[in-house]
Amino acid sequence: MKQINIPWSCGQEDYGMIQIPDAYKVLCAKTDRKQEDLWLPLWMHLTDTADVMEYLCCHWLSDSAIKAIGLEREELRCFCRFLGMIHDLGKGTTLFQYQITQKKIELREKLSRYKWGIKAENLKPGVTKHALAGEAIMQLFGFPESAALIVGSHHGKPSDNDRAVKDNMGAYQWNYRLTEDGSDQWTDFWKYWLAYASDDAGYAGVSEIPDVHMRAQMILSGLLIMADWIASNTYYFPLVRMEEEPELSVYPLRTEKALSRLELPEKTGWSEVTRTAVDFKCRFGFLPNSIQSTMIDIVSKTTEPGIFILEAQMGIGKTEAALAAVEICAEKSGAEGFFFGLPTQATADGIFLRLSQWGEKLSDAHSHSIRLVHGMAEYNEDYISLKEGFLNMNDDSEIFDGSENEYGLIVHEWFSGKKKALLADYVVGTVDQLLMADLRQKHVMLRHLGLAGKIVVVDECHAYDAYMSRYLQGALRWLGAYRIPVILLSATLPAARREELVQAYTGVKGTQCLTDLKSRAYPLLTWSDCGLVHQMQVSQDTGRKIEVEIHWGRDENIADELQHLLEEGGCAGIIVNTVQRAQIIYEELVRASMGMRIILCHAQMLAPDRLEKERLLTTLVGKESGKADRSRVIIIGTSVLEQSLDIDFDVLYSDLCPMDLLLQRIGRLHRHAHHDSIREKQLEKPVCHVLCGLDPELESGGCNIYGDYLLMRTKHLLPEKIFIPKSIPDLVQETYDDANDFGLTGEKYKAAKETYLVKVGKKGQKAGVYQIADPDMRESYNRRSSLRGLLKKKILDRDNRAEAAVRDAGNSIDILLLMRDENGEIRYLPWQNGGICIPTYTIPSEEECMMIARQRIRLPQRFCHDGIIDRTISELEAVYRKYFFEWRESSWLGRELILLLDNNLKTKLDGISIQYSFEEGLICGREDDA
């Protein structure tokens, strides 16, 4: 382990000179339920936490987070130490000491030896949590309200109101102390420890302790939670035996050993930043185009970088432009890491390798922690290999210890868990992780602590509906208040949406902007600097400029048309709105015996199957594919094809969908110029066949997903030719311009418009139920603007419910898909892990659990509606109880739902037929023709 040097504060340079009365040393903070002879004195836990707080402030907290707090680093160091020293003061009360020593006779004897009054009568358990008690005690002695509130918030939930805190001590005085006159030794202890903590932190009196604003309270509450969790980990800070009487002389060695074991990557700054074309080529392997160069130039010239919105066509290199901007913004703002948010797990998985390779170059001389964060992250092979590669370097350690891995990216185990994931340096994941910063969830402060030290990038920001957009705007308000730079990327962003995002971040209304934010220029860069908003069209020297013909098509013509179009070779893409529709088209083309390679890819496939399909697609029709690879290949899929893969079709068929999404799909048509020379003659012109025909009725699946209104407008406004990128802004802006109906009339259209506008409004209102309050933008602290009551209303405390809450996706059920053969043996599907048998009479090993957990799939919505979901879950639970009862103790598999297929890979669920195949994925509600 490497040596940890801690900048001890005043009052700690010689622990031997400080004395704590023996009567106070016997107060208890923690015990061990399994080992009866272990405990931790309260004074030690407070000292442990103070040391960790001080260390985090000096070595881990970024300059950007410190700026957001608003204190100078030395002033903040003292305040952090003070908060650590008093955070559990509420444990020094009658109620807490009674409860923790109730079954510990030896500890009771220690307390009685010094005449601590611990009696059960008059105590009211459950009404005086020790965090609230600590806040009340600090208020009693006149400490700043904000400091008291941070102490009261260190278990993840601020107190609801000031009156409740003050009244608690009066109403339940016996929970605090034994007498009413305040002269008992509990009051003496509180006075002593508050004075001791103040002196230890370097304060001469209460008046020197800062009273901080709402934003600082949020970040410092998160930092205190983090420090408390570290100090409470007995691997780092061991408990002591009952017979021991530790002294202050165990410090600082105790803390140095703990932090050496913990081995958090320290903040190092950004030593090399991409500014020139040469820098860019060294970082990414190619010279920057005009869009990337402009992004670098604008960000470099900002004094105080704020929000940047880059709108540019698909495949132009927006990701690299954003990453170069991240480096410059980080240097300017003092941020130490980044968060890269994407709309889906597939898009996050698809970009993780690219971002980790970039992060590796940033970590040539330092170590940085990285995490992939979404529900299936633990099954991403690139992430697993990075994680295992690091762990293998530490074979002699009981748990992960980064001491021998001096430089590079590490997957630090302390940051595992959804609430701690954003605390890692580099975070790639679904945008939900950012949106939950605006969600009323316990420990939300940890998310703010993590974000306050990062540059935030959100890709595909057009892909979020009114519900998710409400949370994105809330998160942007907080990021703007913290002055954390944000980079938003989109190919197609409606002007009204752009204006909402800028106003949320800056707080600047449209009339105060330097531009009206409704520009239809393209490509377009919008940014803020020192509170002022700017906008400019970016010149484009590279990128595809193509003329796409729009043909209206019909399902029944697809087979004949493709037979002709692909007769000599070439590839086609078919992107439709629903899984069932994709499966039907796939089956029809297979039955047509076209002699072509036909591949189906959608979200209702097991993760290993989908990953294999995506790798195959990249080979056959990806950027590096050749003429032979692409010859007579048809790819059929859903929206997973429009976002997550860099693929290039010679001809495209697409269901009608909203204009911005249709343009995203068209972005997969003639995507790469180097393929032009190998395209067959009849495929030289890019053509998109929109599967709506001239039928007055719209396709039902698309209507269920997107609503009639946007589909009607898209169909009406779609021209015979689309010029990429020139046509993009006008088509998108007109589609979403609700003030102009462009000649659309009729009762059906009017009803569709009214339904759409009402639905958008309801989505926003529904999202607001769980949103936290907006940050106070005033610099000075005001008691009317604090964390108090932040989580007073509905709280979502379970991680899975929290993730679902920021997406208006309705109910969902994830299952593990296995099979039961004719002998009653449970097995993987035949092509998964060789179809080997899975023992159910014992708990599988961790490695086996991971293999089993990869067989996860989400059931279609037809099984998850309010009227059927309970019945579905009951049926699946019955299967679990019958075949997997022994697994109930497994931390991996104990709460899973499992669906068993028979030898023919079929079954029924709630009376509905289900089958699965590698080729088609999960098929529901369709029997064989026989």
Any chance you could write out the topology, listing elements then pairs?
Blueprint lengths: L21 H4 L2 E4 L6 E4 H19 L2 H7 L3 H14 L7 H7 L4 H9 L16 H11 L4 H8 L9 H10 L1 H4 L8 H17 L12 H18 L8 E2 L11 H10 L14 H8 L5 H12 L3 E7 L6 H16 L3 E6 L2 H18 L4 E7 L7 H11 L16 E3 L15 E5 L1 H4 L8 H8 L2 E5 L7 H17 L3 E5 L4 H12 L17 E6 L2 E6 L8 E8 L4 H8 L5 E5 L3 H13 L5 E5 L5 H15 L5 H4 L2 E5 L2 H4 L7 E5 L3 H8 L20 E5 L8 H7 L1 H10 L3 E4 L3 H8 L11 H22 L30 H7 L8 E7 L5 E2 L18 H8 L2 E3 L10 H15 L14 E4 L4 E4 L2 E6 L3 E4 L6
Parallel strand pairs: 4-10, 5-8, 5-9, 6-7, 6-8, 9-10, 13-18, 14-16, 14-17, 15-16, 17-18, 20-23
Antiparallel strand pairs: 1-2, 2-3, 4-11, 11-12, 13-19, 20-21, 20-22, 24-25, 25-26
Helix pairs in contact: 2-4, 2-12, 4-11, 7-8, 7-9, 8-12, 12-20, 15-16, 21-22, 21-32, 29-30, 30-32
- Provide the β-strand percentage band: 5-15%
Number of strands: 26
How large is the radius of gyration? 30 Å
Q: Strand order within the widest sheet?
A: 7-6-8-5-9-10-4-11-12
Structural class: alpha/beta
- The oligomeric status of these chains comes to single chain
Q: Helix share of residues? A: 40-55%
Would you mind describing this structure in some detail?
- Strand 1 and strand 2 form a beta hairpin.
- Helix 7 crosses helix 9 (162-171).
- Among the domains are: 15-262, Orthogonal Bundle (Hypothetical protein af1432), CATH 1.10.3210; 546-724, Rossmann fold; 814-924, no CATH class.
- The strands form 5 sheets. The protein has a 9-stranded mixed beta sheet with strand order 7-6-8-5-9-10-4-11-12, with helices on both faces. It has a 7-stranded mixed beta sheet with strand order 15-16-14-17-18-13-19, sandwiched between helices.
- The protein is α/β, with parallel strands linked by helices.
